[in-house]
Specification:
- InterPro entries: HARBI1-like, HARBI1_animal, HARBI1_dom.
- The chain has 16 helices and five strands.
- With about 375 residues, it is an alpha/beta fold.
- Strand 2 and strand 3 form a beta hairpin.
- The protein is elongated and about 100 Å long.
């Protein structure tokens, strides 16, 4: 009996000790001093940097920055009583820095004294605001005078007649989107991307853009499912035509290189077509040098990527209109640009030998380039 009592007493004491220890640990946890709330200093970047350093960090001059800010200010300004609300100016600067960097939100946020989750929300809102300027800055010629002006400018470049644009596709690097369809975004170079179709003019401006197709998509598939294809089919641009590479099937409004030029006129056509088409390839180089995030990789949810691509295309056009210089880039960034721009190299359309739609190209060679011999 005494033995049982002692055993019971020992067990009770042990349980009490455990309870005391547990309560002590909980008391320490709940009474743990809170981390002090630190206010990060927000730098006035417009004031801090001279013109050269500002351009190097944000890829636009101060003057062009102010022009863009005026266009988006009302869309992103939030009416609030908070003392530390992020201004429209800070939001645009943060977004430009994101476009100009490796896209790690924590790095961009720290530069502006902002938590990365807040930075993410700001960039999302600013992407939409900038992309909404698309109808104003990304458009094909809308009347006979604009069509004629473009044709004249292209003809002065390489003697190619009737041209209103050069079409091609380029890849924008992204993180794996995950899910069942992730492999659709893996391209021929084995990284994940969006295959972006654009039409460029002689000044390297983007006149049309499609930015929603996964990296494994063929250029011609994107074209045949685009609104610009339907507009060209409907003869919306009169006698205007566009030029493309061998990844497209020749059409009466889309002229591609010859597979094997033989005559003097055919060789003249080939040279002129290549020089004219070169503007779209050059536009990709300038666009991605200005905004390296397009080549280094967009590390955000797939739903945000299209707006980023369109927003940077808008800014690319604004920069050209403002006669901004082309940013200097590092060897690392240039290597990444070369990589993403090489994905579509040497892709030939299966219908390249199909001459059913070759009437315009043949007439151009015989009449226009034949007369130049």
């Amino acid at each position: 009996m005494a033995l049982a009592y002692l055993s019971s007493s020992s067990s009770s004491d042990s349980s009490t000790d455990e309870e005391i220890e547990f309560l002590g640990n909980m008391n320490q946890y709940f009474n743990k001093p809170r981390r002090p709330y630190l206010l990060s200093i927000r730098i006035d970047h417009l004031f801090k940097w001279d013109e050269h350093d500002f351009f190097a960090r944000f890829r636009l001059s101060k003057n062009t920055f102010k022009i863009v800010l005026e266009m988006v200010q009302q869309r992103v300004t939030t009416v609030t009583q908070r003392n530390r609300a992020v201004t429209a100016e800070q939001q645009l600067l943060l977004t430009l820095r994101f476009y100009a960097s490796d896209s790690f939100l924590i790095n961009v946020g720290e530069l502006f004294g902002i938590h990365y989750s807040t930075a993410s929300n700001i960039i999302k809102k600013m992407n939409i605001a900038l992309a909404s300027l698309r109808p104003r800055f990304i458009n094909m010629p809308s009347n006979a005078n604009e069509i004629s002006d473009l044709q004249t400018r292209f003809h002065l470049k390489a003697k190619f007649p009737r041209c209103i644009g050069a079409i091609d596709c380029t890849h924008v690097k992204i993180s794996s989107p995950g899910g069942d369809n992730a492999e659709n975004y893996r391209n021929r170079k084995n990284f994940f991307s969006i295959n972006v179709q654009t039409i460029s003019d002689d000044q390297l401006m983007i006149r049309d853009i499609v930015a929603r197709w996964p990296g494994s998509s063929h250029d011609s598939t994107i074209f045949f499912n685009s609104s610009i294809y339907r507009r060209l089919e409907a003869n919306e641009f009169g006698n205007g035509l566009i030029v493309g590479d061998g990844g497209y099937a020749v059409k009466n409004y889309l002229l591609t290189p010859l597979l094997n030029p033989l005559t003097r006129a055919e060789n003249l056509y080939q040279e002129s077509q290549i020089r004219t088409r070169n503007v779209v390839e050059r536009s990709y180089g300038v666009w991605k040098r200005r905004f390296p995030v397009l080549s280094l990789g967009i590390r955000l949810d797939l739903s945000k990527v299209e707006a980023i691509i369109v927003a940077t295309a808008v800014l690319h056009n604004i920069a050209i209109l403002q006669k901004e210089k082309i940013p200097v880039t590092t060897n690392e960034i240039q290597e990444q640009i070369n990589l993403v721009n090489s994905v579509n190299n040497n892709v030939t359309n299966d219908n390249i030998r199909n001459n059913a739609n070759d009437r315009t190209r043949k007439n151009l060679i015989n009449r226009h380039f034949g007369e130049m011999c």
